[in-house]
């Protein structure tokens, strides 16, 4: 039961982290154009060229940070298993891949988003496994 809770809370932590970096920080530092709706996939598809570069960079940072934080939180709650962390990381990687496939982007954005998501998974795995090893000794 603890691993189920770890997975759920880890996923929530990952999602909140992505929201904070992407929406609260990224969109405040680099506002979207007047009338933009970041929740409307059609608007984003049709207006990708109008989204500020800084906002796009914060999307990449958000996906990286969300995976790391979610996996770490899941490991800290579980304390004995990395499975919840792997589930959270896998779900977040899948969400990033969905984002890459569904929205037309510049090549740099596609490559960096995918690469940093994978790096985020590896960093989350490393940090999470250290926390579990410390807790179980």
List the helices and strands and how they pair.
Layout: H1 2-29, H2 41-46, H3 53-78, H4 83-102, H5 107-136
Helix pairs in contact: 1-3, 1-4, 3-4, 3-5, 4-5
Fold and architecture overview:
It is a single chain. With 137 residues, the protein is mostly helical. It has helices at 2-29, 41-46, 53-78, 83-102, 107-136. Helix 4 packs antiparallel against helix 5. The longest helix is centred in the C-terminal third of the chain and has 30 residues, at 107-136. It is elongated.
Cα radius of gyration in angstroms: 16 Å
Mean pLDDT: 91
Provide the structure class.
Answer: mainly alpha
Q: Name the quaternary structure.
A: single chain
The run of helices and strands is: HHHHH
**Shape annotation:** elongated
What's the total number of strands?
A: 0
Query: With helices defined by DSSP (H or I, 4 residues minimum), what is the helix count?
Result: 5
Q: How would a textbook summarize the main sheet?
A: none
Given as residue ranges, the uncertain stretches (5+ residues, pLDDT < 50) are none
What proportion of the residues is helical, as a percent range?
Answer: over 70%
State which percent range the strand residues make up: under 5%
First-residue to last-residue Cα separation: 21 Å
For the structure shown, list the relevant keywords.
5 helices; elongated; mainly alpha; 137 residues
């Amino acid at each position: 039961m603890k691993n189920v809770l770890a997975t759920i809370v880890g996923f929530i932590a990952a999602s909140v982290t992505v929201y904070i970096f992407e929406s609260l920080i990224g969109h405040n530092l680099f506002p979207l154009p007047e009338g933009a709706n970041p929740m409307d996939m059609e608007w984003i598809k049709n207006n990708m060229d109008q989204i500020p570069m800084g906002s796009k960079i914060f999307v990449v940072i958000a996906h990286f940070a969300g995976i790391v934080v979610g996996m770490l939180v899941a490991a800290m709650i579980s304390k004995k298993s990395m499975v919840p962390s792997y589930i959270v990381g896998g779900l977040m990687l899948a969400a990033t891949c969905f984002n890459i496939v569904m929205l037309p982007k510049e090549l740099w954005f596609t490559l960096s988003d995918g690469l940093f998501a994978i790096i985020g998974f590896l960093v989350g795995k490393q940090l999470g496994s250290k926390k579990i090893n410390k807790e179980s000794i």
